[in-house]
Amino acid sequence: MSGKFETFVAGMTTLLELKPSEAELLPVCGALLEHLVADDDWLPDSHAVSNPDTYCQYLLYRDPEARFSVVSFVWGLGQESPIHDHRVWGAIGMLRGSETGTAFSRDEETGKLIEGDSLTLEPGMVDFVSPRLGDIHRVRNADDTQASISIHVYGADIGAIERRVYDPETGDPSPFVSGYTPLAK
Ligand code: FE
Known about the structure:
Strand order of the largest sheet: 1-2-9-4-7
Radius of gyration: 16 Å
Structural class: alpha+beta
Distance between the termini: 17 Å
CATH superfamily: Jelly Rolls
Bound molecules: fe (iii) ion
């Protein structure tokens, strides 16, 4: 892995050694991530491969204590995620192309989803999710000419933890574990 990515991981590791609160952590993580995605010359080709059938999530780094993980998301043309949550803090940095995230909340009585704001990220931009800030969203490729790639950082081994996807009509949650996309041989 390149020096830029190693610098990012070292910065995150140093940050987490301080055991910051989420409110303390996110601005620093966001600044480190903004620095990382300011240049699109470090991501290995192996972690940038798109699949015509589904979006891909390649593990770039998992902290030995699972305090954080880093993933490259590769969105092919027209691809989007289900409506899902994270259950931990997350930071999203746009590296290549663009993606639109749409936030949802749940009606406390009916459990139905209420669509909130959408934000389209362009290269170099960073956004956050967390149970504190708003944790339910859907993400789609906003570029109709190319695959888009964003770098995500989460406060856990995100591929291994149980989260929820939500039915768009009823808002009913279902458990899911995302895993990671295997690297092509
Ligand atoms: Fe997400």
